[in-house]
Amino acid sequence: MEALISILFDGLAYAMLLFIISVGLSVTMGLMGFVNLAHGAFAMVGGYVLVTLMTGYGVPFVAALAIAPVVVGVGSIPFERFLYAPLYKAGELDQVLLSIGLVFVTIGVVTFIYGPAPPAIPMPDFLTGQVDLGFREVPTYRFFIILIGCVMMAILWFAFERTLLGAKIRAAVDNRRMAQSVGIDVDRLFVLVFAIGSGLAALGGGLAIEIVGMSPTFAIQYLVFFLIVVAVGGLGSMGGAFVAAIVLGVLDTAGKYLWPDGGAFFIYAATVAILLYRPAGLFGRAS
């Protein structure tokens, strides 16, 4: 029972990281139809912005965690306008080559500035130690990540399901031409959603430092996991990304607890099984 609780708790914390980073990728790929393999690079940059704020300017962790997504989100707008937008109507190969090229450029720049060694940041006292849930004590930082993930899910659900902006985004994801025909400025939505998605990735990157670590290879090391969450959840589905992240996060954690030599076998096996049963993902729609 102790092992089961540990697996579930650690798996949920890992799942929330995957969700926060991947949900932006799911929506941007669903809305733009752009194969953006550089999404993890924005998460990595978010992590290093947080490191710079804390170690270079003495910004407290929580404040740095709030500032980093804004910096990355705003900073991603020129990339969307000048690099991504010209390739929206290009073939998938061109999009893959551009985005994977950005990943390697980012890795090179980050390595040049920060070096290859993983950075360490001082965590505030209130996020260290254990928190008592009544039946068991659990690591405070993992509890914090789960809380952040649930809050982000609630905010995103409200924004996408209960606001006019969310209705426009969902309409554009479902049918871009129809959305344009009723007066929705899809190009402006692209910019906004891209910035939000990049900011969410940066938030996940900042949170990930204490759990999985941060290094210049983060963007390529976890790229497959972000894509798996999007594929299993279904393109453009926020709820799908949430469910897929939980399923895959817990499975991956359980696999590493029970069969360490198996690596990521369970997450890949589950992905193959789910996509064989539902090729469009759990909440995706067949084209």
What's the helix and strand layout?
Layout: H1 2-32, H2 39-57, H3 61-84, H4 92-114, E1 130-132, E2 137-139, H5 140-161, H6 164-174, H7 176-181, H8 186-208, H9 218-221, H10 223-233, H11 238-258, H12 265-277
Antiparallel strand pairs: 1-2
Which labels suit this protein?
globular; 72% helix; mainly alpha; 12 helices
Can you walk me through this structure?
The structure is a single chain. This protein is an all-alpha fold and 287 residues long. The protein contains 12 helices and 2 strands, in the order ααααββαααααααα. α1 (2-32) runs antiparallel to α11 (238-258) and α3 runs antiparallel to α8. The longest helix is centred in the N-terminal third of the chain and has 31 residues, at 2-32. The mean pLDDT is 87.
